[in-house]
Amino acid sequence: MYLHWHRRDLRLTDNLGLANRADVLPVFVFDDDVLTYASPPRMAFLLEALSALRAAYRDRGGDLLVERGDPVDVIPSVASRLDVDRVGWNRDYSGLAVERDDAVREALAEAGIPTETFHDAVLHEPGTITTNDGDPYAVFTYFGKKWLDREKEDPASPPESVVSGDGVLPTLAELGFDEPDGSTPDAGTDAAADRLSAFCADPIYRYDERRDYPAAGCTSRLSADLKFGTIGIRRVWEATEAARADADDERERESVTEFQTQLAWREFYTHVLAANPSLVTENYTAYDRDIEWRTDEDALEAWKTGETGYPIVDAGMRQLLAESYVHNRVRMIVASFLTKDLLIDWREGYDWFREKLVDHDTANDNGGWQWAASTGTDAQPYFRIFNPMTQGERYDPDTEYIGEYVPELADLEPETIHSWHELEHDERPDVGYPAPIVDHATRREKAIATFERARGEA
């Protein structure tokens, strides 16, 4: 009997650890060390995904064994108790995961139980795309070209047969979590497949032109599915290749390539984190002096609650609270505002996103936050600072997105909304929306001076 330890691979199909296996005993362990970093939205999505996974196993005549505890103790105990021949799992690449997996492998070796691990979460495993000197890439451009050019594996077959485990899924409360404040998307392989199919039927052909417009609906919304593995990355690639084959013209084919490039970005940050596990808390880019981050609890709270007086920023932060999700372009805008306009440490923003996002992924979120803060790989130059009003006017010109998430402004003309920062107090309509908490032009200059001091230039 083969024990498969599920983690971020909550599916049967296109799962390399399960492919063509017979007599599979599936196990999921609620690890208290991992739960320390969890949050209500992600746990709600996880429980729904596990329920769907359990149903899939039951349809095949088996069941999912559910345990709680330290996997170093739980996995060898289950394997010994049930006379398992071999234990396998799909690799994860964060520092915490690597340490945990090494400890489980060592405990199983002491018990005389062989192990197998697989690279399943990404198309190209960390360490396989490097510079000519064998070093990890710190610049995406060269990584992305190699990534796109490499041959991709086909989706893997499901297991041949499964056996029954035993265990009851806990509730959020039993795991120590409240219900999430915001909604979460439907979880499970069927829901993920529906999202992929809908995206590849039409929006993928407009992705290149419209993906940065939050009201356009041209993103895949697969981020949580890829985070929890409710869909396999090889299946996603196969669907995008089929979409490319069905494209009507070169423009549509280029749009498909742009989406595939975003998949490459996801893997780039996974490779970066695997090579630099300390990045979860440390800057990637070293400065000569410490960056003089500000401590401003009132400003941080205004940012978190969407009360900064900058409409596109507040729309994004309110979308986060309402939907446990933020459009990617808006993520960059709100991150720039926190780290440059407010000069608040990127780690504060990273921690808030980790608490509120259903799709929080350590590698991707860390990479995005450090990019915005000019401390990461391939980072935004410190002197290029997003103007939140210009960003709003460019990517939400008709204020559809702003009007949806900042209802106080919904009845105002776009011109009024986009010039909110320029209006005098008596010129702003009394709709219960705040004046800007900072002046962007002033804060931009302060941010540049702060980074120049950190660089030893002032």
Please describe what this structure looks like.
The record marks 293, 346, 369 as: Electron transfer via tryptophanyl radical. Keywords: Chromophore, FAD, Flavoprotein. GO terms for molecular function: deoxyribodipyrimidine photo-lyase activity; DNA binding; FAD binding. With 458 residues, the chain is mainly alpha-helical. Helix content is 47%, strand content 5%. The protein contains 19 helices and 5 strands. It has a 5-stranded parallel sheet with strand order 3-2-1-4-5. Helix 5 crosses helix 10 (250-275), helix 9 packs antiparallel against helix 10 and helix 12 packs across helix 13. The termini are far apart. The mean pLDDT is 96.
Q: Beta-sheet strand percentage?
A: 5-15%
Distance between the termini: 66 Å
Strand order of the largest sheet: 3-2-1-4-5
Q: Provide a count of the helices.
A: 19
Low-pLDDT ranges: none
* Percent of residues in helices: 40-55%
> Order of helices and strands, N to C?
EEHHEHEHEHHHHHHHHHHHHHHH
Instruction: Tell me the overall shape.
Output: globular
Return the average pLDDT rounded to an integer. 96
Helix-strand makeup class: mainly alpha
What is the strand tally? 5
Pfam families: DNA_photolyase, FAD_binding_7
GO molecular function: deoxyribodipyrimidine photo-lyase activity; DNA binding; FAD binding
Protein name: DNA photolyase family protein
Keywords: Chromophore, FAD, Flavoprotein
